[in-house]
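Lecture 7, part B: from sequences to assemblies.

Below are the input chains for today's worked example.
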Amino acid sequence: MNVPPQLKYADTHEWLRGEADGSVTIGITDHAQEALGDLVFVELPAVGRVLKVGEACAIVESVKAASDVYAPIAGEVVAVNDAVPATPESLNEKPYEAWLFRVKPADPAALAAMLDAAAYEKLIG
Amino acid sequence: MQKRTPLYEAHRAAGARMVDFGGYDMPVNYGSQIEEHHAVRTDAGMFDVSHMRAVDIAGHGARDFLRGALANNVDKLATPGKALYTCMLREDGGVLDDLIVYFLREDFFRLVVNAATADKDVAWLRKLAAARAPGLTLTPRDDLAMIAVQGPQARAKAWQALPGAEAASADLKPFNGAQAQTALGPVFIARTGYTGEDGFEILLPAAQAVAAWDALRAAGVRPAGLGARDTLRLEAGMNLYGQDMNEGVSPLAAGLAWTVDLASPRDFVGKAALAADPRPFTFTGLLLLDSGGVLRAHQKVETPHGEGEITSGTFSPTLGKSIALARLPAAVQPGDTVTVLVRDKRLAARVVKPPFVRNGKPLV
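Predicted structure of the full complex, as structure tokens:
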């Protein structure tokens, strides 16, 4: 299972990456895409939506089932990756390139408090 | 503890993702269920269906017993090897199971039933036989494995993998089976399946299952899991027991009226209840017109004639669209547009007559 060491992780199987401008990019992990199976539909939050921690904010549907994606940190959605709903299979092929949305964190310290790669690897066993 | 088929280790070695199905630990996919789906539609794929149970019914009066036990009429089975799809009903018309019955000899029939219902079916049949035909022997064949090889190239590749099989099965018509002597010993080969493609279902001794699986792989047959099996059967417009019908549903409300013989004078368990059924439902296909999600079981359907419900839904890899089977008010017609509630959205879907896909070709 691919767990890039430079990223942060949520126990709900999202990955997070801090950007130079202070925003945080969020996607789903390799483990998540593998468990979901072939993805065929993705719905992203609206830009400008303010998310609470743990709020269901995106939907990824595989052939098998629909799953929510949760906001791992609170903040305002400042960008979404429109390429992913057009090609849901990109989440299976390149889960760490096919990011879903980017937030401006309400708490700048929130990112540092997320799991590191070693802790996430331990979680997924 | 989940039960395992004789092919469990072979699935793990091939990288399968395993799930519980009918009490068995079964492969849901070996990587990509969509690629497995396409392999069956365009070439050849195989499924371990050893969790399904063959039940042999032997003895004088076997046909007469099944004439009364099954909703379809075994009198349609005139030549040895012929198979029939049928429901087995409760007295109130609810579906205990759907199954295939093979006529092998006048005193020997074979049923193939679903995994989750096998124990219940055998108990039901034993009770029925004790009352009606105590001389019959019912034998669940736990010693047999079953591999379904499906796709346009399935037969040719099966013949390549199992020397000796071709002679016995080259002339088999669809929905017929025959015993064959192969390099792996005696096997039962039927030209049946659950995908809408040509192919075989092969019953063989459990001890030979791995050798047969390996030989089929070597002949270029791609392992496919329950995920692809579900999208293939849904495209083919075939029901799944426990999902599209169950003990609380009449076959007439599950699109299975064509399998129920009410015309002949014979009596069978559930007949009186079906004859009195007001048939308030039609069972039909839906093709999602809007984008915004995937049709799934239990989603509510709104029609001008009242509400209905999706019983099975998925994304069709062949059509690139979402499809479903649904139980709707009887007045709804093919071609109508209905509304499906998908989470917080109301999406338009067209009512279509299944199947959606047959022999690799889209039909809707």
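Note for the exam: The mean pLDDT of chain A is 96. Keep this in mind when comparing with the next example.
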